[in-house]
């Protein structure tokens, strides 16, 4: 089917770029955390990257519904923290950006009269808000117990062969 405006496909592709960018960042960070021995936190980042992959899947399907071309070539700057604490800070920033971008996209779709695509963005906003909340909780825990104590809880000594 045709979208109400080609702008809708542009908004979906912009969201796809954001998702592909964070998938890459979280996936690399997950493996870095595993490599440092922080297997529990690594698993959380891995699961986040899978969540974002599902978002990318939703966006690709919607672009194809409109006979558009999902752009899988384009990536934003992949930010990778140098340590676990920085990974959490950067993650929270990128989730805040996602919430802002998807809220704006939902509003623009409503203004164009495409309430279906707006609903897709709104659902995605709720997912990203959950991610913001998770990052906030981790950073709060670090504030409360200190980075060393927090990281001691992220070790995963039970998986020697990964
Ligand atoms: Fe996402
Ligand atoms: Fe997210």
Characteristics of this structure?
5 helices; 162 residues; binds fe (ii) ion; mainly alpha; Ferritin
What does this structure look like?
It is built from five helices and no strands. Helices cover 76% and strands 0% of the residues. It is mainly alpha-helical and 162 residues long. The longest helix has 31 residues, at 115-145. Belongs to the bacterioferritin family.
- N-C termini distance: 45 Å
SSE pattern, N- to C-terminal: HHHHH
Which molecules are bound in this entry? Answer: fe (ii) ion
**CATH class category:** Mainly Alpha
Instruction: Bin the strand percentage.
Output: under 5%
Shape: elongated
Chain oligomer state: single chain
Radius of gyration from CA coordinates: 17 Å
Query: Residue ranges: pLDDT <50 for 5 or more in a row?
Result: none
Instruction: Count up the domains.
Output: 1
List the total number of helices.
5
Helix percent reads: over 70%
Average pLDDT: 96
Structural class comes to mainly alpha
- The CATH topology is given as Ferritin
Q: Report on the biggest sheet.
A: none
CATH homologous group name = Ferritin, core subunit, four-helix bundle
| Strands, count | 0
**What is the correct CATH architecture?**
Up-down Bundle
Keywords: Heme, Iron, Iron storage, Metal-binding, Oxidoreductase
Domain Ferritin-like diiron: 2-146
Organism: Kribbella shirazensis
EC number: 1.16.3.1
């Amino acid at each position: 089917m045709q979208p109400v405006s080609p702008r809708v496909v542009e908004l979906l592709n912009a969201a796809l770029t954001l998702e592909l960018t964070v998938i890459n960042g979280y996936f690399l960070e997950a493996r870095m955390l595993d490599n440092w021995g922080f297997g529990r936190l690594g698993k959380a980042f891995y699961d986040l990257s899978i969540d974002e992959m599902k978002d990318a899947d939703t966006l690709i399907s919607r672009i194809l519904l409109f006979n558009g071309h999902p752009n899988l070539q384009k990536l934003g700057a992949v930010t990778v923290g140098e340590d676990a604490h920085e990974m959490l800070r950067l993650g929270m920033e990128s989730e805040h950006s996602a919430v802002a971008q998807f809220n704006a996209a939902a509003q623009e779709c409503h203004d164009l009269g495409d309430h279906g695509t707006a609903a897709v963005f709104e659902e995605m906003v709720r997912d990203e808000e959950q991610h913001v909340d998770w990052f906030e909780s981790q950073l709060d825990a670090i504030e409360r117990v200190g980075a060393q104590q927090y990281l001691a809880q992220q070790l995963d000594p039970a998986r020697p062969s990964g």
